[in-house]
């Protein structure tokens, strides 16, 4: 599997290039590296997988790719809810309520929880 590291500004161009080459989005994951996130997008490009990796500071925005590939909208909503990563431009933004309810902990998969979150 090839891993291509891209910056936030190049992410959309890299995704579009893969889509133009008939690659299919398989999934994406968000890794909490404590000081920042690493988001990895996995594409099937026959016969291999290609991984696009982008580093995002916890106080930074990550442009969504769901405007280019609608299937990414669910993944982007999930990452936003579970990690609190600020993904912008999500084609179908569920406003933090795709999988979590109003009483759910905020960003439950963060390694370091926000100080304002209550235990429970």
TrEMBL record:
InterPro entries: NADH_quin_OxRdtase_su_C/D-like (IPR037232), NADH_UbQ_OxRdtase_30kDa_su (IPR001268). GO terms for molecular function: NADH dehydrogenase (ubiquinone) activity. The lineage of its organism: Bacteria, Bacillati, Bacillota, Clostridia, Thermoanaerobacterales. This is Hydrogenase subunit, putative. Coiled coil: none annotated. Pfam families: Complex1_30kDa (PF00329). Residues 5-118 form the NADH:ubiquinone oxidoreductase 30kDa subunit domain.
């Amino acid at each position: 599997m090839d891993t291509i590291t891209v910056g936030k500004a190049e992410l959309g161009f890299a995704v579009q290039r893969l889509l133009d080459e008939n690659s299919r989005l398989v999934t994406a994951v968000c890794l909490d590296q404590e000081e920042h996130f690493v988001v990895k997008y996995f594409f099937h490009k026959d016969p291999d997988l290609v991984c696009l990796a982008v580093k995002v500071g916890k106080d930074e925005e990550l442009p969504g790719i769901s405007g280019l590939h609608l299937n990414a909208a669910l993944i982007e909503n999930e990452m936003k809810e579970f990690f609190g990563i600020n993904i912008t431009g999500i084609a179908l933004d569920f406003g933090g309520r795709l999988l979590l309810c109003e009483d759910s902990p905020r960003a439950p998969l963060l390694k370091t929880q926000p100080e304002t979150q209550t235990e429970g």
